[in-house]
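Quick one: MATH domain-containing protein from Brassica carinata, structure tokens please.
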Amino acid sequence: MSEVTSKESEIRSNVFEVGGHQWSILVYPKRCEVPTHLSLFLCVANCDKLLPGWNHFAQFTISMVNKDPKKSKHSDTLHKFGKKEHDWGWKKCMELPKLHDGFIDEYGSLTIMAQVQVIRDRVDRPFPCLDVHYRRELVRVYLKEVEPIFLSFMKEKRSKLMEDKTRWESLCAFWLGMDQKSRREMSREKMDVILKLVVKHFYIKKEVTSSLVMDFLFHGLNSLVWSSTTQEKILHTITRQMGKLLKDDLDSSILNALEEEPKKERETDVKNLSDPIVSVDKDMFVLVDDAMLLREKAVLEPLPDESGPQIRTEVGKDGEREDEKRLTEFARRTLEVFILDHILCNKVEGAYKEAIALKMQEELIREEEEENLNKRRVKSTK
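--- reply ---
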């Protein structure tokens, strides 16, 4: 850094490969429209050779290392890289005078580290975005932002299931009037249908927390699978399908991490979860009990943040593990509420509205027939 004097100077790192693509770090010590700040970007290498239409999402963290690790500066973002937007970062990463506060070492060097994870673009179900270590780093930073995403959704849906007493009394009467076979059919939905809707709702492009949300929804889905009857067989199937689905889009380290995750840890986590209201049967989500009883349970059962104060006694890796278990539980409960809401408000209420419309149509036909009959009677008396 001591040798950089020109206003136009730029420093570019060696090219490195992540997720099957080549990248580099670009630093402008005294340029990029803000001469008082150091500017820092992640770039796609050899961008001039990219084909038209090339684009990929990447979650990345760029760190400026301080001699005191607690003072190191970390910046995170999610961006869709393409031929036009081939670099992304921060024009005002740090004021130049602050670099001398422990960032430039005794040799006059500034150390910059980058962690990059390529994210799938074609998303049709929750998927593992991050390797274990990167996920835990992001959880430390964004825990208080990810938790409210799940909690606000559950509160919103629970409020929807509580409001309009007359509506739910009508739906309950309609439900009780259905035969058992129809109820069973109504209490099921294909996983693909639900999961596409889940991704559409929660995967917000360019939102830095989206990768964490998807990652924990994926693990929440796995915990639902493990709590089902044929746990091991289904989980193996889903893991294999995920591997085939993601093999061309994700860094292999993510899939390797999934394979290496201890089976006993997964089983222990599931044992500590609350009783599920949804199970998995092959490629279907199935309500475990009567739909209206489960609605009452969803309304009355306390949300995770309402079950009592969360006292953190563990520190370090144990504490991080507890945070991950907590977010996995939030994600699983979120999926269950999503599925229950979909079945009640789309399938059951949809069938109820169709039945009402059919009944009204039959009533109109009956009234029209009676009117025609009365007209014929009047003519016959004349």
